[in-house]
Amino acid sequence: MNNLEINRNIKLYRLFEMLPGLLTWGAIIIPIILSLYYPILIASLMIVYAIYWLVKSFRMSSHLIIGYFNYKKDIKIDWLAECNKIASKKFSDIYHVVIMAYVNEEIETMDESIRALANSNFPSKNIIFILATEQRAGEPAQIRANILQNKYGGIFKDFIITRHPVDLPGEIRGKGSNITWAAKNSLDKIKKMHIPLENIIVTTLDSDNRVHKQFLAALTYKYLIDPDPIHSAYQPIAMFFNNIWDVPLVIRSISVGSSFWQMIESTRPYRLRNFSAHSQTLEGLIKTDFWSVRSIVEDGHQFWRSYLAFDGNYHVVPISVPVYQDAVLSPKGYLNTFREQYLQKRRWAWGCSDIPYVATRIIANKKIASDKWVQLARLVEGHFSWATTSIILAVVGWMPRIVNPGFSNSVMAFNFPLIYSKILGIAMIGMLITITISFLILPPKPKKYLTLSLIIEWIITPFMLPLSNIIFSSLPSIDSQTRLLFGRYLDYRVTEKAVTSSSNK
Description:
Helices cover 57% and strands 10% of the residues.
């Protein structure tokens, strides 16, 4: 490749880096400007947009209901019994390598997560556990790792501790570089166990991830019936319920919303992506050189790395069994909890950096079918909607009345608030569905919480959500896209989380 081609590729990559920010800021600023000159047009477009969003919200509600019933059904299934019905393969031949990323979290958090894994319905002697520690965390973290190894080492087939060195060339700090180091440096030891590589499934977990007792068995079943497992990933439902009753109402609503979004996505496999805890075959990971050591969003990025490595022959298989996680709760108090929630959402939204990565590579890869443009469009649209929907509906829609005094004298100005408010009001039905399923799915309420206070909380939730969606959804996404627009790249940081007792035994 000559210098001219290199410069052209760099410029094309930079253009796609700017794309999400330009689209988002254009969708916010242009309607405001046009409201000065064409208020009736903008008001009409806002009504059309609100109707589109109303239809979309009903579709999301229907998927949520389906996802809820899938979840209720799947956690009751005896998945090992289902595995036994597969005559051609035996689940006892399948081994799970579980890699848990660990920096400096408290030992109580780790202990509960490892105990949940040990209490799985799947045979523990078919589990190889890898605790992926960081050298930069120092000796206290290593001491805690050794304590856990002494406690659980005899339960699993093996308990391996790896120690990721500091600042290796070509890496950035993050989970991806840690778990990749852990996998590569455990590979020789795993091969000496003489387990066929095609019989090994690898699952990555964070330190606060507590698997449902049925998860590994359900994962095994999905793997055994998959006609092409090497080109598959397996995605459980992430539920942020471990400490759900200990967090402020706003954080609880955000955590429930994030959990429900994963439940919705599980009903649409064509849109499903790797998120947080996810699984792949060891063979598939070797072919893709494990996870990215250059991305701070290694989960979603792993979908695209695999999709491109396999020339589009890659898909995510949903598993309607949860892996429970902590909602954000800082040990420094509620104010810092809100800050940590914002920063966590901003890191998630940094997935917008996948847009230039994917766009430039699918343009160059002629082997991927035309489906690649649909996949790219979904990626761009997802980040665009994430950043803009709440702000357009709550703020931009009212701009014609705010910035153009002459608009108030028109017929449209008289009818607009009635029509627009009624559309948004009807959309509240979807919110009521969400609240209802919340009551059905959340873990039992601790006795220390008064029922009356919870009822009051849920009553005010519909009025609080529009503002919290702007602050903790739209703004973090706009923040990430704006940073990418101006080339101010994010660094990885671990979200602060206080140690609390588990709500999911």
